[in-house]
Design a protein that fits this description.
This protein is mainly beta. The protein has a single domain, classed as Glucose Permease (Domain IIA) (Distorted Sandwich), CATH 2.70.70. It contains 3 helices and 14 strands. The protein has helices at about 5-10, 35-40, 120-125; strands at about 15-20, 25-30, 45-50, 55, 60-65, 70-75, 80-85, 100, 110, 115-120, 130-135, 145, 150-155, 160-164. The strands form 3 sheets. It has an 8-stranded antiparallel beta sheet, with no helix packed on it.
């Protein structure tokens, strides 16, 4: 029995864990006002009300798409999970203002690697909601998507548990 099995009670493949990419408060994705996220059109997941303007990788994996505007990133984990992290709602309209990226398409990343910094106050002053959806885009690959919501999290706390 490996370390992960002892700690989490199942193999890594059986319990695929997505860590928090942002410090803040986790809320159900259904609380996001944008129907693309709130109606789970892109997939199931969680949303975070950020307390800090940083996004770190929630998994070991590869950047499949770092949006040129810096407001979102898509990652494929080493276990094949497709994750979209979208900082704010309609923030693509900011055209990259208030965002700085630290990774590019194709980069191999580890959980905790800094991906994006964003100026929370400036984004809010421009009239945008900074709630940050974390969506599992290949939800149909999993029998169960468990979201740990209703609590404050630090970067890299567990927020989503996926089971095949």
């Amino acid at each position: 029995m490996g370390f992960f099995d002892k700690i989490f009670g199942g193999s890594k493949e059986e319990r695929n864990i997505i860590l928090s990419p942002v410090e803040g408060e986790v809320v159900p994705l259904t609380q996001v006002s944008d129907p693309t996220f709130g109606d789970e059109i892109l997939g199931k997941g969680a949303a975070i009300r950020p307390a800090k303007g940083r996004v770190v990788s929630p998994v070991d994996g590869t950047i499949s798409l770092m949006f040129s505007t810096g407001h979102a990133v898509s990652i494929v984990s080493d276990l094949g999970t497709e994750i979209l992290i979208h900082v704010g709602l309609d923030t693509v309209k900011l055209e990259g203002r208030f965002y700085k990226t630290y990774a590019k398409d194709g980069d191999k990343i580890k959980a905790g690697d800094l991906l994006i910094e964003f100026d929370m106050d400036a984004i809010v002053q421009e009239g945008y909601d900074i709630i940050t959806p974390v969506v599992i885009c290949n939800t149909s690959d999993y029998a169960q998507v468990e979201v740990i919501s209703g609590k404050k999290v630090q970067e890299l706390n567990e927020i989503i548990i996926l089971k095949k």
